[in-house]
Amino acid sequence: MISVEPRKSEEILRNLDPKKYAFFIGCSGWKSLCNPGGEAQLQRMKRELELRGLTFTGTLVVDALCNKGLDELSLLRQFRQVIRSEVLLVMSCEVGVQALSATSGRMIVPVLHTLSAAGFEGVLGEKEPCRLCGDCLLDLTGGLCPLYFCPKGLLNGPCQGAYRGRCEVDPKKACGWELIYERLKAQERLEVLKHYAAPQDHSEILPLIRLRSRLVEEMSRD
Amino acid sequence: MTFQERLQQGRFIITSEVNPPKGTDVSEQIGETDALKGRVTALNISDGKSSVMAMTPLAFGHLLQEKGFEPILNVSCRDRNRLALQGDLLGAAALGIHNILVLTGDYASMGDHPQTKPVFDLDSIQLLQAIQNLEKGRDMGGNELRGAPKFFTGATVSPTPGTTAAFELQLVKMEKKVSAGAKFFQTQPVFDPRAFEQFMKRAAGFGVPILASMLPLKSASMGRFLNKNMPGIFVPEALIEEMGNASDRVKACVGICARIIQELKGLCQGIHFIPAGWERKVPAILDAARL
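Structure tokens for the assembled complex are given below, as produced in the milestone run.
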């Protein structure tokens, strides 16, 4: 079961020029495993973002965005609307966001926070790592999560430990921040690196607390 | 005159690093620093260098202060969360330690307690920001302090990190550190003044004094080891050869260091020694470099 919750509008727009054209792509989930909201939720969020000035070139809801094959087909299906947009807004769990980011190579902004992703990682077995922090930064890091790709979880850039582009902790792997740099460079968005990422709010970041309170709330209703 | 005053007056500064002992017996380390008396402006006290457990730099820095040295307290984000970091900083200010060097810290798996939980609650930039808030009389939670500290805060930078991406990222991060309150920088060890010059062409624009680090090259094998294992350190082959052919290693090392310092002198605002056990050779290097 994958558990998600919407990000606040100001959070979605924090690094987004409202004059930009956006394409909104959502996930309808996969069987009973996850429910990121589907068409209704997407339209609700779209209206709210339009009120704040964002213009959409189109929308699309697909099954299982975590499936990179489906992502490619979906992007092709609405190719014109996608190509006219400058940013992809993505309504899915972070697994889907990262899969779409990897497939499209474009600037992406997640509109949901992922609190739990246990038990399901995409139908093709493709793994897009999510640390389930509940405080998503993927819009600032080229769609690559620094909590996962940097063992120190540094949010404002690399340490000085990389050796010829390899991580000091595991020299078999590339420095996560150099990967982020290359992705943002390809998107011509290197200026995003100058954004100051505030310390994580661990009271928010413990998704279990929120999951628990939600479960307790549901049970109390019964 | 203090480290801060000298630096702000634009003088050429010498600092050196000392490592607190593993244990309670400080006599050996204190003895080594005696050689530096009168020759350095301030001493950096390392904070669990290379993730090896040692005495807290706050206590050791205080002891060195009593011996007449001006400490620069290294503060690493590896071991303490934001409560502990802020608490130690208040303690440092209360003890009269005002110079702070903020570092991310080596990963725990590199050291002698690889099983420990690496903290990294804050990164170096967030810690710099937190220090600015403390100086304004507020902790990170926004609570008011009774008595605000006053610090002179610096950070580190790697001038030759190896790849183009890493180089650009170092400069971006340096700019963020300056915005977050870094008033000086100490670099990773420099062996190639030409490469350092390339870095300075980009970094000088930030208008913040930079101290280039000097790690005395003790032998040819040390040079090869550094090139093979140490991030951001590139020892030119010519230097390794020079050390390999030397009949008197200490003399050759002193000569090489003095030569590099002479070249760096016009490029940056000071030298930071990482003597790695050769504290007693530092005065000879400074003599040879006429400093």
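The longest strand of chain B covers residues 13-18. The mean pLDDT of chain B is 96. Further analysis is deferred to the final report.
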